[in-house]
Design a protein that fits this description.
By secondary structure, this protein is α/β, with parallel strands linked by helices. The protein has a single domain (4-232), classed as Rossmann fold (3-Layer(aba) Sandwich). Helix content is 28%, strand content 23%. An eight-stranded mixed beta sheet has the order 3-2-1-4-5-8-6-7, with helices on both faces. The longest helix is centred in the N-terminal third of the chain and has 17 residues, at 13-29. It starts with a helix and ends with a helix. The model is unreliable at 142-148 (pLDDT under 50).
Length: 239
């Protein structure tokens, strides 16, 4: 599946507004230190608008077609088979990637594998209920029959994250000229259907089971009052 729809949408008037909102959002979302490793899966070409790669030396863009800003370090590889060590990345960004990935759930498993415990994950997707997105999709499908896309609802993303032991900390909607955010998973679905796109921020959790060992039972010992008296006391009493 191709991401041509994404880049074509960014050229529309509404797409330019969305891009500006996503630039501001990503700039605020990258909260890790400059020495930590940040991985963006799926190149955009305008990464320099929200990240200073001269400051973040460990910012890496992974893309199957080697797309992305020339200022960043890049890896050409498939998203569903990341050539990275397990638990080696501090933060992962998926900007409109899963919608065009035929192996999207395998990609999510790979993301979970390479992300460190307590690492951050940011997912950006189109809102499948947006009339503007659907109109643009129908138009592009008429112009290019070979394009296929699969828009993913926020509820499905939340289910995937829960299955992979992620804790959702922030969910945001990109409206026409504003960003509306709510904290936690409980309020994640309380958003307007008119939003063009949405973002979900989550933390990879690792829960360690604490084995419960049965306590050793000891035989109760009865202590009599007479046994507490010393021999000398007993002899004095007999005298």
């Amino acid at each position: 599946m191709k991401r041509n729809f994404l880049f074509a949408f960014y050229e529309t008037p509404r797409g330019k507004l969305l891009r500006q909102l996503e630039e501001d959002y990503l700039q605020r979302a990258i909260t890790v230190s400059c020495k930590q490793t940040v991985l963006q899966v799926g190149g955009l070409g305008w990464e320099n608008q929200f990240i200073d790669c001269t400051l973040y030396k460990n910012y890496t863009i992974l893309d199957a077609k080697n797309l992305g800003s020339d200022e960043a370090r890049k890896i050409q590889a498939k998203s569903y088979s990341l050539p990275l060590q397990s638990s080696s990345i501090d933060m992962i960004i998926l900007p409109h990637l899963l919608e065009f990935d035929a192996n999207r759930f395998q990609t999510m498993r790979e993301v979970e594998r390479v992300l460190k415990p307590e690492g951050l994950l940011v997912v950006l997707n189109f809102n499948p209920w947006s009339l503007w997105v659907r109109y643009q999709y129908v138009w592009d499908k008429k112009m290019a029959d070979n394009w296929r896309g699969h828009f993913i609802s926020r509820s499905r993303i939340l289910d995937w994250l829960k299955l992979l032991n992620f804790e959702v900390t922030l969910s945001s909607d990109f409206n026409l000229n504003s960003i509306k955010s709510t904290n936690g998973r409980a309020n994640a679905n309380r958003h307007a259907f008119s939003a063009t796109a949405y973002a979900v921020k989550a933390i990879k959790r690792r829960y360690h089971l604490i084995p419960l060992t049965p306590a050793e039972r000891t035989k109760p010992q009865l202590v009599f009052a007479n046994s507490m008296t010393s021999p000398s006391t007993e002899s004095n009493q007999h005298d």
